[in-house]
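Q: I'm writing up a methods section and want to include an example of the input and output format. Could you take the sequence below and give the corresponding predicted structure tokens, formatted cleanly so I can copy it straight into the document?
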Amino acid sequence: MLRLVERTSGGGGRPFKPHPLADYLWRAIYPRMATSREQIRERMSKLSREQINATQVGAVMDHVWRNMESYKWMIAPAQKGAGTLRAYFPILIDPEDVDEFAYEESCREYVTAGLISQMRTIISMQQHVAKTIEIFAETAPMSRKQRRVFREARAAVGIAQRALTDALGDLSSNGA
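A: Here is the clean output for your methods example:
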């Protein structure tokens, strides 16, 4: 079912090894998208004729996210919280150009809502990391050079946070 690209895993040239549940994950979210991880778990259990648990679902989803170039597909980011546009479905990746993605036009609202949700999470995490770096750089025993490196890292996180915040504002203002 899944067509894989011949690649190495990046770990010392070992060949990529597909997750044994990846095919069931694909079939659980395509052609009908799933609206929750629980629904994915139920579908995977039915397809595999084995009891799949939430930990296994999380592990295979993480594996696919980390190896999307090898699988030639990724799982669209799902909206978090109380939103009504939460959905899990695949986005195909062109194996020749990993920057090219394809999904059905009917899924655009779900992709946008998931992206906005994911960007908000990342911005929040960046705020936390920036403050932690700042505190660490000022309180931990280290050389001036090390302290400068941490201050530069804190500044870089701030730049990335502002860029994501600007992109989020643009995305949100364009009808998302």
